Amino acid sequence: MILLLFLTIGILHTVEGTEPAVEISYEEVAARPYTETLYSITCSVTHMPVNSNLWLSMISSAGGYVENFTDESNGGFWFTVRYDSESSLTVVFNAFVPHYEGQYTCMVRENTDDNPLEWSSKSVYLKYTTMPEIQDLIYDDAYTFNYDHRLLFLNDGSALQLQCVASGVPEPKVEWKKKGNDNYVIEGPLLDVPSVTKADSGFYFCEAHNGIGDPVKSTELEVKVLDFFPPKMRYTSEPVITITEDLNRYWGNEMGTKMEILVNGLPPPTVTWWKETEIGRQRIMRESTSTHRFLIYDGFFSYPGTETDHRLIIEAPNQFRLGTYVAKAENSLGVAELNFTINAAETTYTIQR
């Protein structure tokens, strides 16, 4: 654990002769990242009067009330009071919350009933401060994002907007930087690129600093700018399916006929299934009630550059399902098709096409 230590010593005033001289000093300690600045305050007295009391007094900036720190104070978790001697007092804050921001003074008073003399140190003002912390990186939900690799996919020419959410007291200054490019510095929490190109691909991170402790960095976010391309398709099952079993037994069992393809493209293609008939091509829709129903499966589009699985399944097919089927993939750049043929060997059924 690295401690950042800043020491400022304020000397009050020294009274000539045997008059007590009261001094106050403090240390600023950032105990660990992302925490408030902690303080250790010491009161010390030269020529401490006999039968006198020493304490630390605070006037809070939150409401102006006064709090005195003595050996009878109960700070609990927040602070501890330690008398090193009758003329030396140390208050250590374990958590310096906004409540404790204010003006601090060391006090000495004679413990007598009649007109007790009182001496005080110079006052110091202690501020509530915290190290910066990056809480979140915000991006448009419409972006394609791979959470496992913190990878953001963008199309060439699209807009990139990333928001860095940082906190700290005082408010931290935020900058965006790009790994491997020391000259790339964008001031402010918003990274805004109206139209990205391939050159904008890379690893980005934001950095926050407010003068308290070291600057902090976010995790890196990789941006990949991709080119559009028309659909590409390939078979993952046989394009020609020939039924060679006894047809009566085949049609009556629960077997299904599967047609499977892999599709790639950017923007992600839409895949539809069709059947060639005597009256033209007819689109196949999902069926949930038919005994010989069609089932259509569309794989999950994870991120560009990977193929997506698509299937057409005919449950318990009959002779009327024989014929030519077409898988069609299309996006804004083009259309691609693959054909499947289902036929039966040595059947006496009339095949409808």
Automatic annotation (TrEMBL):
Spans traversing the lipid bilayer: none
UniProt xrefs under PROSITE patterns: IG_LIKE
Assigned GO CC terms: axon; neuronal cell body; plasma membrane
The keyword Signal is assigned to this record: yes
Signal sequence residues: 1-17
Keyword annotations: Signal
This protein's record includes keyword Signal: yes
Protein name: Ig-like domain-containing protein
